[in-house]
Specification:
This protein is 28% helix and 25% strand. By secondary structure, it is of the alpha/beta class.
Length: 115
């Protein structure tokens, strides 16, 4: 996921309710960065995607390694990883406003209204 040399949005969720808006958030981030960001969903062990599924690639954190490495908390969390592999920002809970603020600084884009 992190070897492509681009910004990556990792959306971590532990239950259906927490990941319900991930598709919209990823789509918003992609538009804001002119498609220069790739998004993935990371599900905690035992978590299920929303009933309708997701359009994003899904990975399972079956051994809890992601949760330990990124110090996830209860509830949804978004991580933007820079192309050099360093963490750019952590948003708990993930919001369009928080993502907009971070990405507007990184990509020097105008700050559109969050959806």
């Amino acid at each position: 996921m992190l070897r492509g040399g681009e910004h990556v949005l990792l959306l971590y969720g532990a239950d259906r309710e927490s990941i319900g808006g991930f598709d919209e958030l990823a789509s918003f981030a992609s538009e804001l960065t002119c498609r220069q960001l790739t998004s993935y969903v990371i599900l905690a062990d035992g978590a299920r995607p929303p009933a309708g599924g997701t359009r994003l690639p899904v990975y399972r954190d079956t051994r809890g390694e992601f949760a330990r490495a990124y110090a996830t908390q209860a509830g949804p969390t978004a991580f933007v990883v820079r192309p050099d592999g360093y963490l750019g920002t952590r948003l708990h809970p993930p919001t369009a406003e928080g993502l907009t603020a971070h990405l507007a600084r990184v990509f020097r884009t105008p700050r559109p209204e969050a959806r």
